[in-house]
Write a structure and sequence with these properties.
Rossmann fold, 34% helix, 294 residues, seven-stranded mixed sheet, Elongation Factor Tu (Ef-tu), domain 3, 3 domains, five-stranded antiparallel sheet, alpha/beta
């Protein structure tokens, strides 16, 4: 290990940029040159914000080999992500960032691709859209937000998409409705779509797969179940695809959306909800106690 590497290992990985898109969604750009060089669309990392922190998987939202950085877009939902929202600031460090993990997305065989991102899935669909465009495909982007005020990266998507369809729940911009409405529009306008790639909540990916199945269009989804070690040893990220069991961390995260058992995936995610609520309540109570003592 070189002196520079030893210094990084001791301090962690520097946060060079932070952007807040909403009250719950924020972006962190992390300096990690080796990871940025190795990263490919569709891969993820496992992050620990501090030495005693939880290991959480986060799909890469961007990577810049020239700057030597990776970008993560995080939703403050549970204990760890809320803690990161409070503590992760420019100039600070993440204790550990492991990756890139997972099998990179297969890019290059499809000539016309629809890349669909809903909610937090908008961020990780961006590298997919960019990769397909760089491979020579005609790229249709479909992105969904609750409202225009919560939109982000419109300029980045327009730079790599031949067509961009925006959907909002309240109709404040683009199509009023879910991203499936955007997918339907793309299917109606283009009879030669080779593939649809969808990233978002399980219910959204399930709906996208149901929309494309009647036309037998290849549909790829990225699964992000509960995960601990990222090596397939813990078994926490088991998913059922085509009646068989796979581990999302090493066999995925990309799978055939028409074969994924989304009901089983949703049930497994709900299984941990009580423990997640208890962890969040315990963290909040500790925060209140520290505030009262200061």
């Amino acid at each position: 290990m070189t002196l520079a590497q030893d210094k990084v290992a001791a301090q962690g990985y520097e946060i060079v940029t932070r952007l807040d898109f909403s009250e719950t969604t924020f972006l962190l750009e992390i300096r990690h040159a080796a990871l940025a060089r190795a990263a490919r669309a569709g891969q993820f990392v496992i992050v620990m914000s501090h030495e005693e922190g939880e290991r959480i998987p986060l799909t890469l939202a961007d990577f810049d080999r020239g700057r030597g950085t990776i970008t993560l877009v995080i939703q403050a939902a549970g204990k760890t992500t809320r803690e990161m929202q409070e503590t992760c600031q420019v100039g600070g460090h993440l204790h550990a960032v492991v990756g890139p993990m997972g099998i990179p997305s297969h890019v290059g065989s499809s000539k016309k691709v629809v890349c669909v991102g809903g909610g937090l899935g908008v961020a990780p669909i961006y590298p997919q859209a960019r990769a397909h465009k760089e491979a020579g495909a005609y790229v249709i982007g479909v992105v969904g937000f609750r409202s225009k005020a919560l939109m982000f990266w419109e300029d980045k998507f327009r730079a790599c998409c031949d067509q961009l369809i925006v959907c909002t729940d309240d109709g404040s911009t683009g199509i009023k409705g879910l991203v499936t409405e955007g997918v339907k529009q793309a299917l109606a306008e283009h009879a030669d779509i080779d593939e649809v790639v969808a990233i978002g909540p399980p219910i959204m990916m399930k709906a996208c797969a149901a929309t494309t199945k009647p036309r037998a269009i290849k549909t790829t989804v990225s699964l992000n179940p509960i995960m601990v070690d990222g090596t397939g040893m813990c078994g926490g990220c088991r998913v059922r695809v085509g009646g068989k069991v796979f581990f999302a961390c090493v066999d995925g995260p990309d799978f055939d959306g028409h074969e994924v058992d989304f009901d089983d995936l949703t049930q497994r995610l709900r299984r941990y909800a009580p423990a997640e609520r208890r962890a969040l309540e315990h963290w909040r109570e500790n925060c209140r106690m520290r505030g009262a003592q200061s």
